[in-house]
Amino acid sequence: MSGKFKLLFILFFTYISLSGLAQDSSLQKSISISPGEYQLSDLFIELRRQGIPLAFSENLIPKTNCVVDRSYSSLDEFLKLLQSQERFEFSEKDGLIVLRFNANNQINTIRGFVRDKSTGEALIGAVVYKPGTIQGVVTNNYGYFSFSLTAEQHPVHVSFVGFKTYQKTYDLSNGGVIEIIELEESISKLDEITISSVEPDFNVTSLIPGINTLDLNTEGVIPYFLGEVDILQGATYLPGINTLGEDANGIHVRGGASDQNLILLDEATIYNPNHLSGLISIFNPHAINHVEIMKGFIPAWHGGRASSVISVTQKDGDDKQFHMSGSIGLVSAKLIAEGPLKKNKSSFIFSGRQSIFDISPNNASSSRFQDINTKVNWKPNKKNTIHLAGYWGNDRNVNVLDTKTQWGNRNLSLRWNHLFGKKVFSNVSAILSEYNYKITQPREAASFIGQSKILDYTLKSDFSYILNPQNEIRMGATSILHILRPGSRVPFDVETSSSNPIELDSEHGLESAFYMSHQLKVSRKLELQYGLRFSNLVTFGADTTLLYDENSPKSISSVVDTLIFEKGSVIQSDWRAEPRISLNYKITPSSSVKMSYTRSNQYLHLISNTITPSPTDIWKLSDQHIRPTSSDHYSLGYYQNFSKNTYEAYIDFYYKDISNLISYKDGAQLLFNKNPETELLSASGRNYGLEVYLKKNEGKITGWLSYTLSRSEQRADGQFEEEQINNGRYFPTNNDRQHDFTFTGIYQLNRRMSTSMVFNYQSGRPYSLPLGKYTFEGNAVPYFGMRNQQRLPDYHRLDWSLKFEGRPNKRNGDPKLIQDYWTFVLYNVYGRDNVYSYLFQQNEATGFTEIIPNSIFNSIIPAVTYNFKF
Amino acid sequence: MKKFGSIVFTVLLIAGCESLDLPEGGSSQLVVVEGWLTDQLETHHVSLSLSSSFTSKEDKPVIDNANVFVLRLTPTSNAYPYDHIGGGVYESKEPFAAEINATYQLIVELEDGTLIRSNIQSINDLSQIDSLYTGTIERENEEDPDILDTYYYPIVTTSDSPIQDNYYRWTISRNDTLLIGTKNLEILSDQFFDGNTINHELTGFEFDLDDFMMIEQQQLSSEVFNFLQLVKEQTTLLGTVNSTSPASIEGNLSFSNKDETILGYWGVISIDRDTLTVR
Q1: Cα B87 to Cα A778: distance, rounded to the nearest angstrom
Q2: Which residue in B238, B240, B242, B254 has the most chain A C-beta atoms within 10 A of its own C-beta, making it the best mutation to test that interface?
Q3: How distant is the Cα of A637 from the closest Cα of chain B, in angstroms?
C-alpha cells in the first residue's frame, strides 16, 4: 500500500474513532496509527489531525524515522514507544500535551576497535548496535567502528560469530568515548559446528550484492587438495567462481579473465596468486585473518580491475601471549610464530612455508616453493595503529634440460590508522608490490638469463566520516606508480654464449584515482551506497610509439610514423569516471532485494595467449593502441534467511558488458616482441548468468549448495579479416561453463572428529575440434575452423576429509601443552578421469591420428596433514 | 549420519555410471600442397593431396592428375615442369637450382582447370654450416642405474649474418634415415643472436657410437619460419597446459578463381649439408 493511501486510510479511521466517547485525560485518548515506519514529524502532525491537542515546535523535531511495531490504543503508550527511539519529553498541562525537544539535540560518538580478547586480533565485520532499535554499525577491515547516539545513556551490544555478545551501557552525556572492545570466544555446543565468518544475517543485511566471505572456520574441515587449506580453491566452491581445471593458473569470476581480479594482500597487489603453476595459492591460511570476495558490486574505494576484488587481510599477531603453530603435510611444512612485542600495544606474526615434495604433475620438471608472511603492528594509543606487513614468495621450476624458472611476489605495506576528531577514521598506506620472474637457460648455443618485473609504488589514503548511524561518507585517493620492465635477456656466460643482450623498453605509468562514496540508510527498509570514482592513467616516456596505417591491419609493414618520447615526458593521459551504486531493500527482517551497478576500468593487462596464463607472462599498461578495458556490471538478487539465520540463501542475476578486451591473432608471437600491439586484437565481451546459494550455518550437519548458470562470450570483430575471430561473431570464452554446482557437507561426528565432503560438477568447457587433418612432410597436422564450438565432457569430482583432534587435556585434566589435529583427505574419491583437454596427435607406432583425452589427475589422491599449536 | 552417508553413496553411484565418448572430428576435404625448391642442383618435389577426417585411418587421398610447374619470374623468366611419379608426388623433369635473389612461383593446374598459385618466393641469404661436431649426455642405464650410458648429440656451428633477420631449420638423418615427426622440427630465429656465431646444440637427437649423422641446415624466410612454428605448436603443444588457442595455419597458396583455403606450403630455401660419423 502506498504512503498516500495509507494516510487516507488512517484519516478515515481517525475520523470514525474521534466521533466516539470523550476521554478524561488527553494522554488516555485513543489513537489509530497503523504499524509501519514514519518520519517522527509526520506522526505528530497525524496525531494532531486525529484531534490530539499537541503543542510542539515543528522545526525542532529531529528528522529521524521511527518504527511503529503494532497498533497502540492509548496516546501515553504510543509516546513512550517514540521516546524509546528518539529523545524528547512530554507533559500534559490543561489538557494540552506539550512536546519538548532538545534544541541542541547533541550527538556523541562511541568509536574504537573490536578485537578478539584472547589474541587481540581485529574482528572484521562485528556488529555494534543499540538493542531494540535499528541503529547499528559494522566494523571495517581494521576492526574499527564509529557509532553516534544522542548525548545520554545507551545500552550497546557488540556481537560477532563465534564470540559472546558484549553488553555495556555507555554514558554519552559528557561527550564521546573511544573504546577497545574485546570479545570473548563462546563455547559452542560440543557436537556442533558454525561455518560462518560473519554475522548470521549478513546475507540479508549486507549492502553489497554478490559479496562472499570465506569461512576460515572451516580450516582443516573441508577437503582441500593434498590437505593444503587453500583460499582460492575454497573460493571456487562459491557461486560464480571457477578455474579452467586443476593445475590452471588464476581464477575466473563471473566469466571474467584471470587478470581482471584485483587480488590484495593487506592492500598490496598480488600479480600472480599461485604457487606450482596453479595447484595451490600463495596465501598461507595460517597467516590469514579475513578474506572478502566482491564479485558483484565493487565499492568506489576499489578499482583498477574489470571483474572482482579479492581482499585478503593478514593476522596482526597475538598481542597477549607468545605461541607457535604449524603443520606438516604432503605439500608443505608451515611454522607460525606470533606474540606481543609489548603486551596489548604491539605484536608480531611471522609465518614461513616450504614445499616438501615435488608434486608437479609434469614429469619433465620439478617444482619447489617457499613463502614468508610477516606483520608487525603497534598501537601507541587508542587513536593510532601502525601496521607493517610483508610477503615474500618464490617458486622454482627446473626442467630436464636444466632450464630454471623462478618467479614470485614481494610486497611491503606500511599503514597508519588514525582517528581524527570525533567521527573520522583514516587509513594512510604506503605500499610496495613487485612481481618478477627469471629464466636461466644454461644449455643451447644462445644460453641466456631472462628477467621481467612489474613494480608498483602506491600511496593511498582513505577517510571514513560517520555522520550518524544513517550516513557514512567515505572518500580517498590512490596513486600507483607502475614500472614495468617487460623483459631483459643477457648471455648466461659472456664467453661461451652467442646471445646478444636485449632489453625491451620499460613502461612507466601513474595510475591515480579519487573517490567519494555515501552510504545511506534511507529508512529501516532501504539502504543504499552510491559513489563516484575518477580514475586516470598517465604514461611517461622514454618510449617509441609506432603509428599504423588506419586502412591496414597493424603490422610492421603498415607503420606510417614513429613518435619518440623523451624520458619523463607525458605520452598520454586518460581520465575516466566510474559511477557505482548499490541498493538493499529489506522486504522483511529476513529477506531483501539487492541491486547494483558498477563501472570499472582496467589499465593493466596480462599479455598471455596461452589457454591458462603462465608465470612468465608479462603485464602491459594501456597505451595508444591498447585501450583500458571497461566493464559495466549489473546485478539483481533476492536474499533470504530462514530459521533464525540457521539457513541463508540467495539468487543473484548478473550481466556484465566488457569493452576493449585483449584478444590475440592466430599464432601471435609475444616473446620479446617490441611491438605486441601487432599481435593483439580488441574484443568485447558479455558475461551473464544467475547464481544460487543455500547454506546451513550451524548444527551437526552444516554446509552449502552453490549453483551457477552462466555464459561468458567474446567477440573480436575488427575492421579487417585478420582482426576477426569466428567471422566477428560471439563465441564462448575458454572459461565458459554453463552449469557449475558444488555441494559441501560437514558432519560433526563427535567432540573431536568431523568429516566432510565436497562434490563439484561443471559443464565441460569449450574447445576447438579439428575440421580435419592433412599431411605435411609425413606429419599429420590438424586444421581448425571456428574457435571453441565443442564442449569437453562434464567435470565432476568428489573429495572427502576427516578431521581428528587430539585430546585437549591430560589425564589429570590439565590442558595439554600442544593442541593438535590431523586431517585425512581423499581427493577425487572415485578416481574420475576428468578431461582437461584433448590432444590431437599422431601415434608414432601406428601412424594413425588420435584424439586423446588429457587429464591432470586421474586417480584418487590421498593426503594426511598434521597441525599443531602451542 | 545416515543422511550424509546416503548423499555420498548416491554421488558415487551416479559418478561411476558414466563412460567417455570421444569426439571424431570433422571430415571436410581441402587441397594440400607441399614442397620446397632449394638452391641445390637436384630434382625437386611437390606433393598434392586432400585433407581428410582427423581420425581417418585411410591413406591420405592424393591428386595425381594435375599439371605442376615452377616459374622463375626474375631476373629472367623460365618454367620448370614437374611430372607425377606416384602417390601424389610430382618431380621436376630435370635438376635445377634456385638462385639467390631470383623470384619463383609454383603453379598447379587441377583436372577441372582451376589454378593454384603460390605467392612469390626468393632466397635472400645462403645457408652455411661452419662445423659439425658432437656433445655428450650421460644418463643412468634403465636396467642398471649404476651404469652410466653415454649418448651423443649434434652441435652445429654457423655464423649468422648481421645484415638481416635470419631463420634456420635443421633436419637430422641417422644412418641415412630422416628423423621425421613434428617434435623433431628444429627451427630457430636469430632474434637473440643476430650477427653472432652460434653453436646450436641439437640435444633432442641422440646418437650412439659409429652412427652416421647427416645435418641439413636450411635458411628460411620469415613466412616459412612462422608457418613451421605454427605447425610445431599445433602438433606438439595443443591441448597441454601451455597451449595457445588452435589457429588456422595460413599457407602461401591460393586459388586464382575461388575463395577456398589451400593447406600446406611451397617455399624456396637455401640449404647446406654436413655429415659426421660418431667416434
Answers
A1: 13
A2: B238
A3: 29
Cis peptide before A628 (omega within 30 of 0): no
What is this structure's pTM?
A: 0.84
Chain B contacts of A836, Cβ < 8 Å? 241
With a cut of 90, say whether residue B243 has pLDDT above it.
Answer: no
Q: Is A659 exposed, middle or buried (0-12, 13-18, 19+ CB in 10 A)?
A: middle
Q: In chain A, which residues have pLDDT < 70? A: 1-24, 102-105, 133-134, 187-202, 207-220, 360-364, 444-446
The number of C-beta contacts closer than 8 angstroms across A and B is 218
User: Which of A781, A802, A826 would you mutate first to test chain B, the one with the most B CBs within 10 A?
Assistant: A781
* Contact across the interface for A500 and B192, Cβ inside 8 Å: yes
CA A48, A54, A56, A62 dihedral sign is negative
Q: Residues 202-261, chain A: which have Cβ within 8 Å of B? A: 247-248
Q: Give contacts of B171 with chain A, Cβ < 8 Å.
A: none
Q: What is the pLDDT of residues A621-656, one digit of tens each?
A: 999 899 999 999 999 999 998 887 889 999 999 999
Q: What digits encode the pLDDT tens for the residues A705-732?
A: 999 999 999 999 988 888 889 889 999 9
Chain B residue numbers touching A773 (CB-CB < 8 A): 25, 51-54, 56
Dihedral, A372, A378, A384, A390 alpha carbons, nearest 10: -10
pLDDT tens-digit map of B185-223: 889 998 888 888 888 888 888 999 999 999 999 999 888
Mark out the alpha helices in A68-114 (DSSP H runs).
Answer: 75-83
Sequence-ordered strand ranges (E) for A603-667: 604-607, 618-621, 629-642, 647-664
- Closest-CA distance of chain A to residue B32, Å: 7
Q: Which residues of B98-115 are buried (b: 16+ CB within 10 A; e: fewer)?
A: beeebbbbbbbeeeeeee
A445–chain B Cβ distance below 8 A for any pair? yes
Angle at B257 between CA B254 and CA B263, to 5 degrees: 25
All three cell numbers of B131: 662445423
Flag whether pLDDT at B129 surpasses 60. yes
Of B26, B192, B203, the CB nearest to A448: B192
Contact A682, A718 (CB under 8 A): yes
Q: What is the pLDDT of residues A264-296, one digit of tens each?
A: 999 999 999 988 877 888 988 888 888 888 888
Complex prediction ipTM:
0.89
Which residue of chain A has the CA closest to B1? Answer: A747
Chain A 818-837, residues with CB within 8 Å of chain B CB atoms:
829-830, 832-833, 835-837
Sign of CA dihedral A720, A725, A729, A730: negative
How far is it, in rounded angstroms, from Cα A407 to Cα A359? 17
Please check whether residue A333 is in contact with residue A866, taking contact to mean a CB–CB distance below 8 angstroms: no
A610: nearest CB among B193, B244, B250: B244
In 3D space, the residue among A511, A569, A572, A568 whose CA is nearest the CA of residue A537 turns out to be A511
Q: Which residues of A touch B249 (CB under 8 A)?
A: 667, 781, 783
CA distance B169 to B186: 6
pLDDT digits 0-9 by tens, A323-356? 899 999 988 999 999 999 998 889 999 999 999 8
Whether residue A103 has a cis bond before it, omega within 30° of 0: no
Residue A597: per-residue pLDDT:
96
Nearest chain A residue to B193 by CA: give it. A499
Does residue A443 contact residue A401 with C-beta atoms inside 8 Å?
A: yes
CA gap A256, A259 in Å, rounded: 8
Judge whether A688 and A245 are in contact, CB under 8 Å. no
